[in-house]
Amino acid sequence: MNRNADMEGSSLWRNVRLATLRENLGPLGIIEKGAVAVRGDRIVYAGAECDLPSDISSAEQVIDCEGRWMTPALIDCHTHLVHGGNRAREFQLRLEGATYEEIARAGGGIVSTVKATNALSVEELVAAALPRLDALLLEGVSTVEVKSGYGLNIGAELKMLRAARQLERIRPVRIVTSYLAAHATPPEYKGRDADYIDDVVLPGLSQAHAEGLVDAVDGFCEGIAFSPAEIARVFDGARALGLPVKLHAEQLSNLGGAKLAASYGALSADHLEYLDADGAAAMARAGTVAVLLPGAFYTLRETQLPPVEALRAAQTRIAVATDCNPGTSPLTSLLLTMNMSATLFRLTLEECLAGVTREAARALGILQETGTLEAGKSADLALWNIEAPAELIYRIGFNPLSERVFKGERIAR
Ligand code: DI6
Ligand code: FE
Fold first, then answer.
1. What is the percent of the chain with per-residue pLDDT over 70, rounded to a whole number?
2. Nearest residue CA, atom 7 of ligand 1?
3. 213 C-alpha vs ligand 1 centroid, how far in Å?
4. Nearest CA to 77 among 324, 335, 401?
5. What is the CA radius of gyration of the chain?
6. For residue range 114-126, what is the model confidence (pLDDT) as tens digits?
7. What is the pLDDT of residues 253-285, one digit of tens each?
8. Is 117 touching ligand 1 by the criterion CB < 6 Å?
9. 273 CA to middle of ligand 1, Å?
10. What is the DSSP letter of 199?
11. CA 327-355-150 angle, 5° bins
12. Distance (Å, rounded) from C-alpha 332 to C-alpha 128?
């Protein structure tokens, strides 16, 4: 065994076209004749093949990519992946003419998912989430944000977050958690939002944080959920624990949630159909990413488009995500999410692709670690059987992934 120790666990991806998503390299950060070198779990080189330094030009494993395209592995930065049951029956009833109110009165809606989630153990929640997670991973996803928010009592919120953490141990994926007890007021606290925040949301947050279960704190700021003043109390709790915040804001009406989130230096504000130019500018100033969720827009047959022009004018960063949830976005495809972002929201190719890589990483506060093809970052790569990047957003229901690499490890499709 005289193998060079430096080459241990090393791989070289050559003859590859790179969409690095590095901003200093122009749109998509394209390098036509590229190479990517990996040592252990790190990218040590991502650039032109002809400039490959001689000390890293040899590797244990050399992969000729035959001109395929490589992007950073994809990132789904907003999901409710862990939950019990589904709402297909409600979907069917709505097609037959039932209204949301009728369904809610019959015990449906978010309350039915809360019941179904409370009924499951951590292991059962993991088992329920796995097929959804696997669907994402098969399309080149390597990082998934997962929220709590269907427990609505301390025990069940912690259970959801434990299930989310468990997913990372049984699949090659990075999971980033958000504590979303401020998603809805459970029936037992009806009309007593403040008590729910005092009794459940804030003490549950301290417990979940003490267990290492919380990467960020989320809330739902809406007429049917929590007011900006109530969300501010939750954000104060997050701040006291040193946790970053994000917010479901301006989905159904404009309550100024995005502005509030920006004032707390939020990582992101999400949905945003009813955002105004002021809110977009406040987000840009705070570095708060706008996460657009076309799956919910589509499922709700919403007609109010998010203010994409205002976001561009303010130079607010834009990400896109599935919002995978059983009520308003039963979507487990980030490729389809990109297509919807283009078709429904008129996002450009660059906005779509940056939205599931670089900007999604920024929205999760992990841009130092992943989201671009860049030396020093985690070797999270996706290799595609495509002739041009536009194919990633153009097709509907077709998966051109060739292979995925997570932390340097090759994962067969
Ligand atoms: N926004 C939504 O659209 C969902 N939650 C949220 O914060 C709805 C959740 C559900 O109906 O289960
Ligand atoms: Fe959501």
1. 98
2. 220
3. 22
4. 324
5. 21
6. 999 999 999 999 9
7. 999 999 999 999 999 999 999 999 999 999 999
8. no
9. 14
10. I
11. 25
12. 13
